[in-house]
Structures
1.
Amino acid sequence: MRIGNISEEESKHALHNMDDPYSSDPQRHKVLEMHTEKPFNAEPPSSLLIENFYTPKNHLPVPEVDPETYELEIEIEGRTEIKTLRLEDLKKLPKHTISTTLMCAGNRRREMNKVKEVKGLSWSLSAVGNATWTGVRLVDVLKSVGIDDTTQGFHHVHFGGLDSDTANNPYTASIPFYKALDKHGDVLLAYEMNGEPIPRDHGFPIRAIVPGTVGARNVKWLGRIFVAKDECDSHWQQKDYKGVSPSADASTIDLSKLPSIQELPVISAICKPANGESVVVKDGHITVKGYAWSGGGKKIIRVDVTVDGGKEWHVADFDHQENAEPPHHWSWTLWSARIPVAQGQKTVEIWAKAIDSSYNTQPDTIDNIWNFRGFLNNAYHRVKVNLKP
């Protein structure tokens, strides 16, 4: 049926990006180091990353969601009824706020690439951020549909996003049932980030926040929750985000038989100075700054820094750390250290390692934790710098 005509000039705009699912994505800041444009994957410069304790923080196109018509479906395996909650329904439940760090499993992958080529985006040390999130506890939402920690027969809770790939497959991931139902696990269905409605890039209007776990389980643009016996069968749960042996071969290993990455190991990174930077020596010392974090609600209790290959270690000061105690310590720690250097020395290699409240620490080299996907690089962070008198 013909409705009318548009001019030739209007048709150029009307048809622009018609077949591009990323055409309506939000604008991003120019300071970000972009790894891919579509989908948009980028990280801030490391020097800016630690300027604030709370950072203003996709695999698939960013969906456009109308909060007035938004609905969250909750389904329980074996039951016919599907519960639907609107945004205003969620906001009627008790409000809860937590601060937590979210980190990609591929953070610091670039260093693994230098040892041996890996598969994945070449993330530096800024595929991480820390924010406050406000919303409702998942445990309260599940209790409203008759699921609590006494419920038997279920082992996983699935999260389905409203974002889909070109084959119309939504992004889905799952977490263990015990984490979802632990009232101290602090899993949120968040609608605010840093005191404001969640930006589109970060999951508006509702995002699953699973503190202490890998970023891939913190599903954005949440549209569905499924309580199930089995783990999610999506690509991102079964064929990716797995930890493997350094000798594993990508062409032969069956990733579906390996456990999925959930909690992340202890890690630290040197953000200032950057690798290759020239640093001014003041009163025989240089200043080093960075972050440290551990998954699973563990707290950083110490960061050690050395400039002589580990002969002498210097304990860093904590510039900002949350007061929350383990196992509910979800945020990173920002640290700094004033390190003496020998007079006349031209270069140094700075090493940093963190220790968490379970006395887990970082492995000293990448070689024995290398893997073909470049995941879970938590080896000592090493930065070589030039010294200026």
2.
Amino acid sequence: MIIFVIVIQPVNVKFHVVNASLSEFNFITNTTTIVYNLSIEARVRNPNKKIGYYYHRIDAKAFYEKKQFAYIILSDRFYQGHKNTTMLRILFKGNSSIPLRGSKLEGFSRKFDKAKSNGAFNIYIRFGVRSRYKIGNYKSSYSKPKIHCGLRVPLLTNGTSTVFFCTTTCDVGSPLAMDDGEE
């Protein structure tokens, strides 16, 4: 392993969310339903000179206040070569029931209304990746790195917002790590 690191000098993939916005984000209290339209653009950069990546699956889960409200499978299989950048365009759109009652419902609703009046929501995105790396003719076994992104996403009103999105660097689990069995 030490020789591998010295010779290959692997570097983790870089993952940035470069743009995000909510054209709709509403919480309907009496049905505890979130109605959403969340658009995200993410840049995935392979900075390695000698390592390529096969992405067999990428999925994404969106959370607000630790409550998952959306899930999507992003892409078909693709290969990302050396020193290459791939753009992912993601659209979460729909509605989701959030199981809340009593004081938890009241607290959630208050936080939601406050964030809406401030013009931005703290949204957490977790990307699940199933990938393999390639060095020369060697292909590794599958790994399942997790990518975590904490975003402050502006809410658009009539197509504009007083809050601007700032590019966010996401925390990337090592693509060269072995599968830990977590789903």
3.
Amino acid sequence: MRKKCAVTWWPRSVDQVALSPESVENCPRRLVIVQYLKPKALHYFIPIMDSMAKEHLEADWSPNKQIINGSLCVPVNIPGTAYNRAIKAGKVIRQEFKQVIKQMKEELPENTEKVSRDFLTNTLLALDENGRFMDDMLIVTKIMALIIGGHETTTTSITFMMKYLAEYPHVYSESKWRLQFARSKGPNDLLNWDDIMKKYSWNVACENLRLTPPLAGTFRNATDDCTYAGFTIPKGWKILWSPYSTHKNPEYFPDPEKFDPLRFEGNGPAPYTFVPFGGGPRICPGREYARLKILVFIHNLVTRFKWEKVIPDEKINYKPAPNPAEGLPVYLKPHNHKY
């Protein structure tokens, strides 16, 4: 049996910003939420996600109207730094969630017999091995971890899908053509699982994730001396694992800088060469949620708008997630009719 020589590790700045000083030691990094993120559970949320995407585009896009940056900084809390601002933002967000929890607790006694489908309500109702409810701050910590892990990564992916669809009009046209099934729906009909499980759309999303993974990498701590590729990694050293070297390796992806969704046709890349969600037992539990969120939003965007980049050669910054330097401003062009 192969010896395990590294375990998950995160810098102290992540714990201090995303979590809270009083709960860092007691919060498990691997959240017990997988049951809420499996495809069967996510079916229920597709119409809700679709409705929210439609409302957002109608309210904020049609009229033509990120605490993550400070979470991977040197953890020196000096006023004016990104780390200091992130610490303050984390406190504000935690306080907001505490108010939400307080309000939900006041409403729960009237609805305890109703089976809830959402993570927060079920967490509030759950009892530990001693028959006690979970501490509010620990619940907030879990929610913060979900927000950091699930929101920033998917919004980054959606941003870069817009970038690539603007840069490759033939991919945009193919995506739009493949989404013509939406014409058969009534104006008030919402998406379902079958509607968005269209392979070409996910091929486009995967090629986007290959070229621009939303995370530069994840951390590990060496639990013993180990050797990799001829290099010795001493016990206690910190390791940064990055998907970029694999995703840009021409041995696995010929002409690796080319945006080509057809790479993912058929069986797709070889195992462990395409790893935006990691792999093995530590693979991201929210990968199906991310898939739905990206596809639902992009579906609504492509079937409603065409767009062009305002700054054709806009630079990309990494701090630590990739970000267009100017926020990717675009010219939105609504289609003449709605699907």
